[in-house]
Amino acid sequence: MPDTNVNTGIPIRWENAGRVRVGGVAGSGFLVLDVVAGSLNMKVGGRTGIPIRDRSKFLLNGTTPVVLPGVEQMSELTFQVRFTKNGLTGASDLRAKLQPANAADGTVAVFPVEVDWLDSESGSTLARAAYVGGFLNGGFAIKSNEEDSDIGDITITIAQANPTWSAV
């Protein structure tokens, strides 16, 4: 039987009108504007594997190593933004969307996070990674920039190992 090709089709680029949405899902969330080109990095958490050993040797099931599922790992989304005055204090306050008040039960408030990749700059077909448990683990940094606008470093930790992937 021949191999099957995977990851077929035309490569996509987030820089071609990609979007980051926080605090809600498509139609009710907040699109993050002024993301610095080339700064988006998404780490999908997944799950660790625990290889089983017997007296310092890997336990085999026939010729296949036995690996048990381990702990789910958190995902992470990092990017840089060019903050605006309204993005820090105004009606489009990104800071407030990323740092909501804690929930009534005292737990850290989490928010939905979606990352979209469009098939082209003017395209309407996209691939979406959707998470439900995003939060800022700490805060964020703002750096002054001599030759450009000031840059904010944003790291959203996501208490979810894998996003829901969809073609929209």
Task: Explain what the structure shows.
This protein is mainly beta. It has a domain at about 35-45 and about 75-165. It contains two helices and 15 strands. Strands 1, 2, 3, 10, 11, 12, 13, 14 and 15 form a nine-stranded antiparallel β-sheet that branches. Strands 4-9 form a two-stranded antiparallel sheet. It is globular and about 65 Å long. The model has no long low-confidence stretch (mean pLDDT about 90).
Give a concise summary.
With 168 residues, the protein is mainly beta. The protein has a domain at 33-43 and 73-167. 6% of the residues lie in helices and 42% in strands.
Set down the secondary structure blueprint:
Elements: E1 19-22, E2 30-31, E3 41-43, E4 47-51, E5 53-54, E6 57-58, E7 60-61, E8 64-65, E9 67-72, E10 75-82, H1 85-89, H2 94-98, E11 111-118, E12 126-136, E13 141-143, E14 151-158, E15 164-167
Antiparallel strand pairs: 1-2, 1-11, 3-10, 4-9, 5-6, 7-8, 10-14, 11-12, 12-14, 12-15, 13-14
Q: Alpha-carbon distance between the termini? A: 33 Å
Give me the Rg, rounded. Answer: 20 Å
- Sheet with the most strands, sense and barrel status: 9 strands, antiparallel
Number of helices: 2
Uncertain spans, ≥5 residues at pLDDT below 50? none
Instruction: Name the overall outline.
Output: globular
Percent of residues in helices: under 10%
The H/E string reads EEEEEEEEEEHHEEEEE
